[in-house]
Write the structure tokens for this entry.
Amino acid sequence: MRGEDSQQQAMFSYLSPEQRVPQDHPLRKLRPLVDEVLQKLSPRFARMYARVGRPSIPPEKLLRALLLQVLYTVRSERLLMEQLDYNLLFRWFVGLNMDDAVWDATVYSKNRERLLKADVAEGFFKEVVGIAKRHGFLSDEHFTVDGTLIEAWAGQKSFKKKDGKEASTPPDDPGNPTVNFHGEKRSNQTHQSTTDPEARLYRKSQGSEAKLAYLGHILMENRNGLVVKPRLTLARGTAEREAALEMIPKRSGSGRITVGADKNYDTREWVKQARASGATPHVAQNNKNRSSAIDARTTRHAGYSISQRKRKRVEEIFGWMKTVALMRKARHRGRKRVGWMFTWAAAAYNLVRIRNLIGATA
């Protein structure tokens, strides 16, 4: 018998979001890990808020929603709140019941400075790394460093002279004027973006266009490809090598660590400083125009070949962060805010990786 296409809306429901989410859904294995991290951050959250006054939205709920934004590639916080309003999966993960009201998207704008001041992203990331360490997923001997370009939320038209002396030609369109840069010498010394003053004009490689950008850096352990340290810096020529030296860990006890890297790090100064810090640099040899800074004393060992194979996994991290976590082009302005999101995206990547590793060893 054919059922009727009834359009009557039910007034009551006896099913909770917990019953709607499948038992084998990937988020079910992720939720306990997130709750464990947030529980450890509870004392930090308590220090962020006053003891009196009107209760705020729990920071745990705000952060769970931000994780969903990264994991499900939600472009903005306004769209995130729209999803949270009708998506049962999102409501379950955040901890909202069917009848709970969804907060306004401006809540994130009002709480962002509080989250930045308390270094919540850094604390969250360290607790996630702690989980990986307790499960034995981290290597304390073999690492890889690399950097990538993060395009700033600023257009080329906002890159103007610092002295304010611009052409006096009246704009043809006040909202979006035509600008001709041909024949004009533009550099970070003489120009600055009016949209994001901390963004720098930078070209990642020969033949590519210069963009207003930041540089994101990753220190990856080679055993399971987990992020050990993320960092965001201003975009300049030596930033990758300088950040790498700062991120190289100091191993407790005897023995040296290995640090894999691409040809950009094959300079005599960087190799010398890396060795002085107690690391053996396993950089890809750059023999195009000159001799490499490393020789057969390093490359003859089997560990060098292994490092060269493993170091390519760092590109998988950057690929995930740029495509899934929307870090190809920053959605915030200023080094602190972009750096906060870069660290948050690295923590989300580690959570997904740890969940998969736990499932593989179960």
Notes: Strands lie at 142-151, 159-161, 191-193, 200-202, 211-221, 227-234, 257-261, 279-283. The chain has 14 helices and eight strands.
